[in-house]
Automatic annotation (TrEMBL):
It is found in: Cell outer membrane. Keywords: Cell outer membrane, Membrane, Signal, Transmembrane, Transmembrane beta strand, Transport. SUPFAM superfamilies: Carboxypeptidase regulatory domain-like, Porins. This is SusC/RagA family TonB-linked outer membrane protein. GO terms for biological process: siderophore transmembrane transport. Its main location: membrane. It comes from Pseudopedobacter saltans.
Length: 380
């Protein structure tokens, strides 16, 4: 009798194990909650066994589970993730779209921040990363073409040349038409300094010899806002005429360019380094005729000019004539490099950021060169 009961117990034990080991199959379909349309590519995950699959083009799926206590997770980019208990063999899952729209916040003036969607006027914004990617020594030139209504004109192609900025055309015939520059809530002077202004200042106290000596040396010392390192800029917000006047008064009659710089952030120390190397050459040369020599009416005359009457070429050059391209020999290939280094860190009480930049640019014209060092330290 005991042997019989033992045999029955062992039989029932194996029977229960076999029943427990059978898989539980779940079929289902995933649809969108808004239009009740089948959704393809939804990731279905069994949280117990970590088995994963994706729905087909009809939104259908079939998965085998160990038991009915398993949890199924349904996820797709742009939709809210759902987790359901697999207690039925047929499931219908409705995914709801997730609104991840981020309301952009911009700095309008004096450190004030506003929601871009809530502003009653347009305030275009350019990120510092966009400006830094251009690798321009004068970041104002990088604003060209990025802001509607903003005209940026470089005074020359020399290294460190000034950039004239005008917003929606001129507002004054003889006055300053450039916008107001505001850096972290502080108005900055963007005046352009050249040798003629220095000579004029010195000649007022002495004689006119200083001004006369430098009358042919009107070198451009660039505008002061160009001294900023693009790697230190977080964002640039453009405020046009009426909007700038409402905040800054008559100083903003020509508009305002509000610059927000980067600040240190709490956490571990972060080190950033960037290096760029560029070269430039003269792209286009003037076309010069090399068939006729100087002269008039076919007669050679080295003093012939077109000052009086019509200009007529002299005789043809011989085939053995050697031409020297002095213009191409004058210009050279320009090389420039820029290196940036920054360190930032902070705690709950103090955040800091230190940055430095080295710029070395040679122009295509001999003896033209720009060397600039930038160092910046902020803490708050």
């Amino acid at each position: 009798m005991k042997l019989f009961f033992r045999a029955c117990f062992v039989f029932l034990l194996f029977l229960s194990l076999d029943t427990w080991g059978q898989n539980f199959k779940v079929n289902g379909v995933v649809r969108s909650a808004s239009g009740n349309l089948p959704m393809e590519g939804v990731v279905v995950t069994d949280l117990k066994s970590h088995k994963m699959l994706v729905t087909d083009e009809g939104g259908a799926f079939a998965i085998e589970l160990k038991d009915t206590s398993s949890l199924l997770r349904f996820s797709l980019v742009g939709f809210k993730t759902q987790t359901l208990k697999a207690n039925k063999t047929d499931l219908v899952v409705l995914l709801v779209a997730e609104d991840k729209t981020v309301d952009e916040v911009i700095v309008t003036g004096y450190g004030q921040t506003s929601s871009k969607r809530g502003l009653p006027y347009q305030a275009p914004t350019v990120t510092g990363a966009e400006l830094a990617q251009t690798r321009r020594t004068n970041f104002l030139n990088a604003l060209a073409g990025r802001v509607p209504g903003l005209t940026v004109t470089s005074t020359s192609g020399m290294p460190g040349a000034s950039a004239s900025v005008m917003m929606r055309g001129g507002t004054s015939i003889g006055g300053n038409n450039q916008p107001l520059f505001v850096v972290d809530g502080v108005a900055m002077d963007n005046s352009t300094v050249d040798q003629s202004s220095i000579a004029s200042a010195s000649s007022s106290s002495q004689t006119g010899t200083a001004n006369l000596a430098l009358s042919n040396r009107n070198s451009d010392y660039t505008n002061r806002i160009a001294d900023m390192n693009p790697e230190d800029i977080e964002s640039v917000t453009i405020l046009k005429g009426p909007e700038a006047t409402a905040i800054y008064g008559s100083d903003g009659a020509g508009g305002a360019i509000v610059i927000t710089t980067k600040k240190g952030k709490a956490g571990k120390a972060r080190i950033g380094y960037g290096n760029s190397f560029t070269m430039a050459q003269v792209y286009r040369w003037p076309e010069i005729q090399k068939e006729y020599s100087r002269g008039t009416n076919g007669i050679y005359d080295p003093t012939a000019t077109n000052a009086y009457g019509y200009y007529y070429f002299g005789p043809k050059y011989d085939d053995s004539t050697v031409f020297y391209d002095n213009m191409k020999h004058f210009f050279r290939t320009s090389f420039s490099q820029q290196q940036d280094l920054s360190v930032e860190s902070g705690t709950k009480d103090l955040n800091f950021r230190i940055s430095g930049t080295y710029v070395n640019q040679n122009g295509v014209v001999p003896n033209t060169k720009l060397t600039r060092y930038n160092f910046r330290f902020t803490a708050f």
